[in-house]
Input
Amino acid sequence: MALSHAILVSLLDRSHSGYDLAKRFDQTVGFFWPVSHQQIYQELHKLARAGWVRGETIEQADRPNRIVYELTSEGRQALDAWLTEPTSPPSFKEELLVKLFALEGANRDTLVMELGRRRALHIERLARYESIMAEHYPDPTVLNARKRGRYLGLRMGILTERTTIAWCDEAIACVGAA
Output
């Protein structure tokens, strides 16, 4: 998936400025597709040059002008074509796993501390996801199709965090016993 597709998906519901898209990414797509705000702005310019989005400048007296972007019919066609493409399972780089490959007595305490720190981070993220779930998706059976898709993404995040916390618990016990 390219960032362009994530932006096109984000513009399905309504038009957004680059700033609004960046904020929306931080609270949605950014959980599993992290990007900087600068990357979003750069990609919006590329999408506009390709004709997939159209920007309208909104003049503001006391602030810099805003450009609000909307999906064009060409952008919708590109998005529809991308939606038909098969996906591959994600691959990821995990530095902690590489460090665990070097486990020995001298670094055991350091790794246990790092595992505990990671566990705490995953507990925080799980709490955030569960809060969003309770607020926005308490009953998935009443959601429209697009919101069900968002629900499923959030559900995967919750299950991933729970599994990772359980793995951290197991790893702490295992490394501590080494």
User: Anything to note?
Assistant: The first helix runs from residue 3 to 10. Helices lie at 3-10, 18-27, 37-50, 73-83, 95-101, 108-136, 145-177. The two ends are 41 Å apart (CA to CA). DSSP finds seven helices and three strands in the chain.
